[in-house]
Structure formats: C-alpha cells, structure tokens
Amino acid sequence: MSGQIRKKIQKKFKIRGYSLKVDALDEILSFVNQFPDAEEEAIDLLLDNLQLETLKSSVIDKEPIKRVVSLLLEADGATVDESPGPASSRSAIRVTDAFLVPKFRYDLVKKQFYEYTGRLPVHGEASSKAAVYKDRFLLLFQRVSRDEHFSRPAFDTELSHFGSCEISPIQSLVIHKGRRWVMGLISQLEDGHFYLEDLTASVEVDLSKAKITTGLFTENTIVVAEGEMQSDGIFQVITCGFPPLEDRDKSLKSHAGLDFFGGGALTKEETLRLADLERRAVNDMFVIISDIWLDNDEVMGKLATILDGFENVEVVPSLFVFMGNFCSHPCNLAFNSYSSLRLQFGKLGKMIEAHPRIKEHSRFLLIPGPDDAGPSTVIPRCALPKYLTEELSNTVPNAIFSSNPCRVKFYTQEIVFFRQDLLYRMRRSCLITPSTEETEDPFEHLVATLTHQSHLCPLPLMVQPIIWNYDHSLHLYPTPNTIVLGDKSEQKAFKYTGITCFNPVV
Question: I want to staple 226 with a disulfide (CB 3.0 to 4.6 A). Which of 40, 205, 239, 255 is the partner?
Fold first, then answer.
C-alpha cells in the first residue's frame, strides 16, 4: 500500500512540474498517512499550498515540504471564512528567479508552443544568438496571426477583404506589386542602411516618410509596416507600428496549461481559490525603493525613517522590495571595497532587526542594479553574491536575493521587477523621432514599446548585452498585471491597456 501511495505522490508532483528528493518524499508520505481515507485530497492540498511557497528550483527537498506541512497541521481547526493573516500573506508571495523561468518555443507548423527542456548554458553557441531573434519574432507573429485585422480571410471574397491587412512574407515582395503589409525585425545589415527581416528574407527599407504610432523605434524592434516596393529594390514604408497587443485573458485562454511566467501552472479551481483570497487580502502592501546606497549616511538615515514609520502602523507591509544599486560607486574592476560593502549589508540587517514587527511579518526582496557586484553587466543579472549578503541573510531569514529582472506572483497577480536605466538608452537608440500625436511623455512611449514588443529590453545587443539562452526570461507574454521599472528617470505611473507600469521613487 505504501508503495502505491509513493507512486501516486510522485505522479501528482510530476504533473505539476516538480521532482522529489527522497527525504521530501518521506516527509510527504508521513503527512499523507495521517489521513488514511483521504490520501488523494491530502496530496492535492499539500500541492496547492506548496504553490504558494518561494521555491528556488523545481527539484524539491525536505525543507519546503516541512514548512507547508507545519502550516497545514496548525491550520487544521481553522475555518474557511477566516481572513488571511500575515503568515498566509507571506506564503502567497512567490518569487521566480530569471534563470528558473521556463523556456517555450513556438512551432510554426503545429501552431503551438512547446517547452524547451534542453540545456541552457550561460555561454551559448552562435546559433543561440540567431534563436533570440527568431523566438522573439515567432512570439509576436503568433499573436498577430490571431488579430482580426491581420488574420487571413476564411473566404476569398470582396467583402472579406474589407478592413483586412493580411501580412505578406518579405520574400513575396519581389513578385507582388502595390501596397503590402509586412512584419519584420529592424536591423542594420550595412552601415547607415536599415532592413526589415522575417523568416523568409530581408529587404532594405526607407523610413523617412513613414507615419508611425506611439513608441520608441530602435534597431532590433519588430514592426508591422505598410509600404510599396520601389524599382530600386527599396521598400518605401508608408505606415509603421508595433504588432498589436493581445488581451491577457485571451493569451491565457489560447495557451491554457502552459506556465510562461514561472512558479507553477494553476488549475482553474486553484485560480478561483487564490482570487477569492486576493479579494480578502485588503491590507496587503508592497514597499518598493530603488538605489539604496548602503555607503551613504543620508540614504540610510531616510531608510531608517521609513522603517520606523511602518513599524508603528497597524498592519506592516507584506513585502519590501529593495532595488540596487546598493553602492554609490560602480562595483567594477576598480572597486576595492567589497569587505566594507559586506559590512554595510550587515548594518542593513541590524537596522531591520531593530524593527521586530517588520522583521517577523514582512519579507525582503533584494534585486541587484546595473552597477552592483556581479559577473558582468549582461542581463539577466544573477542575484547578489553570497559573500556580500551572508551577514544580512543570517540576521533576516525572510530576505530573498533574486536576479534582475525577477518575477513575483502575489496570489493571481503577476508582477515583473526590472532595475535598469532603460528610458535614456532607448531614447538615444531611436531611429525615428517619436510621434507626438497621442502623447509627448517619453515614459508612456517606453511603456508602449515594452508591452507591444512583449520584451523588457528591446535594445540592440551592442547597447545592452543579453545572455542569449536566457532572453526568454525578459519576455512579457502573456502580459503581466504590473511592470515595475527601476529607472533613474522621474517617478511615473502609467496604465496602458490594462497593464500598470510604474517607476518607483529613488
């Protein structure tokens, strides 16, 4: 009987994407055996609550299982109508490191995504660089193919062409005359000459007379353009814009069961249960601050004031998000103060320890900035080195050190955090002066670009290097509920097509 239950446990955990170590399996078996007539319900309950834990890997060891089992046994007599307290709020926060985000690729023949399960070395081969652009293109292409304005008519009638803008392969421009709609990646194959590339061919384009939509058009962005082929072989662009957005719910429905965000796929029942808990968690609050210079007395004094204020409120924040840089000087080869920076992280831990309510009930997420200590300036950046954060983590067990960018799931809400000085660099890389027809606000142009491109950093690789095999961790598809950009530009908030994007106070 015990052997059958073991197999059942392993099967259910495998369906959810987990692998169990031996000690974790023994711990689960011990818990399930306490419910001899309801083994399956006990396993499902354990899995549901494990989804709310912050897991560093899909390979589960004994520790997270013990935490979940303890919470379940403590709550055995609790009623369903009880309001979620600090402990349940904490467990509702799931942090996913960029290097643990599942990778999906689109099959153009089968017209569906499949999870890539191969190795993802940090140092990719040359083919990995080409795959970056191919994956980005196919991600947007499958989205556009479902858009009613760009989808191919079912019946070839005069009426069906009304309002339809079918996308033509760039290769077909050679034989088809007149105005055509194409979709491609802007690239500079020759100095001063820009091209549009898709999976079939490339064509030189003239963007000088193009009417553009809202956004920042840089090299490596993917656009949908209407134009006409000229006799000299140049495609004269008349109208140029980004691929249309797709509603988040429509994306989720189209790819039901696939976990693009990371942190585990949820069933419909689990989503409804979490949505109900979310509605009742009215007191939960996140505090987000960037550029916390630990070596600056004025900054640390103001941080102490913030902690003092929240220590005395009735309900303390569920999560503090501290985004780098954590030092006023870039931690490059000329930086020789790593030992003092380690001590300063230790002082931050003591400052938090001096606020017992915050230390007990809040969690702390630390995300490195572009100039913080790390292997390179390439993104995604790994978490802060353990050497620097060891004293802090010993003092504050609730501290989580994650990558940049990183993803946080709060009940059903999906939040992406990215600390990068993006606006200035995107504006410098623009090929066309941004349109002022809809807005003159550069931040709104930036938000439109990121959401339509479904990518956190659509800059040329020479401007911002990206680890080729982990470019998928920068994808914004399906669109998250919230994007937090830790940018050096002024504090801003902008809601765009249902997505909230803001730049926190520095």
Answer: 239
Neighbours of 44 (CB within 10 A): 15
Cβ atoms of 84 and 92 within 8 Å: the answer is yes
Dist. CA 265–CA 176, nearest whole Å: 45
State phi, psi for 396 to the nearest 5 degrees: -120, 90
pLDDT in tens, 368-398: 999 999 888 899 999 999 999 999 999 998 8
What's the angle, vertex CA 151, arms to CA 145 and CA 156, rounded to 5?
A: 145
pLDDT in tens, 140-194: 999 999 888 886 655 454 443 445 578 999 999 988 788 999 999 999 988 889 9
Q: pTM for this one?
A: 0.82
Q: State the amino acid at position 358 in one-letter form.
A: I
Paired strand residues for 186: 196
DSSP string, 152-208: PPSS--TGGGTT--PBPPGGGGGT--SEEEEEEEEEEEETTEEEEE-SS-EEEEE-T
- Of 325, 407, 320, nearest to 369 by C-alpha is 325
